[in-house]
Predict the structure of ABC transporter substrate-binding protein.
Amino acid sequence: MRRPSHQGRIGAAGVLWALLFFALVVGLAAPPIPAPAAAAPARSERPKQATVKATVIEGTQRFPIYVMQTKGIADKYNLKIEEIKAAGPQALYTVMQTGDFQVSFGGWLSVALMRAQGYKFINVYSVYGYTNDVMVRADSPLKSIAELKGKRIGVFGGPSAATTWLFRLEAVRYFGFDPLKESKVQFGAPPLLIGLLEKGELDAILILDPQIVQLLETGKFRSIGNIGDIWREKAGQDPMLVSISMNETWARANPDVAKRFVAAYKESLEYLKTHAGVWPELAKQMGIKTEAGAKLLRERTASNLLTKWDKKFIDEQYRYAAEVLKVFGDAEGIPKQIPDGTFDMSFAP
């Protein structure tokens, strides 16, 4: 009987072991197969473009809007600004009271009054302080606000405008008379008042920039007092005049858009304070024709642009309001107290 032969099975096993050894050697020598790349982190989504309706008076408060639209800042925050022009504070407040506005730039004290009357308005960020001058013709004998008692005075804000209150407060406290009671006051838009002053139908006018610079540039007019400088020197306070004011209902319904607008406006204020080259552009738009005029506009304006919005700053505004109320607390057109919610910090950068 023949013994079974194992030669074939041993040969097959040997081949199998040889193949396994070869595969192992090749595997060790080959470069490692790279692991699948991790997914790149998702880029933060660009916010959806939003249109903001801004009611604005031509002049200083519009300068940041111009910067936002021409220096890439509105694009950075994906905002489109729809401007609604107002001739002066009274026209601005009329638009606000219709409720058909989102953002405006008003005297914060006037906004507080309207809030006390039931309007849902809030102040959400600072814009600038007082830079208003009392202007007379160059040939006028008047040299001081103290000489305006009994005179014909044009005032660009209405009777409850923030500038009107400071003008009255200074006149009563430092010059011994109340213009609204002891002078002949006419309210109107700056172009109207300038025309009346030029014709000699008014003795003096309280107005704002850029019209002040325009008048000084002609050499035909001069200032007899800057109400902001007078208050800062005599009272030691530097109150805010204009703030970013919002329709509270709109702001609460669109908090992201409201925050983006405030951040863009603040960035534009900072741009104005640090980029001297933008001022000739602004001056030209305002009809200021000389290099000296552009320089004067920047000197008068840039240092008074405000980029603060914290508890300390807001407390300073309450202290100023207390000074106004001490003298005019019983007068119409001023809140007996500053309503809760007048200042809102939730939209500030």
About this structure: The longest strand covers residues 121-129. The two ends are 102 Å apart (CA to CA).
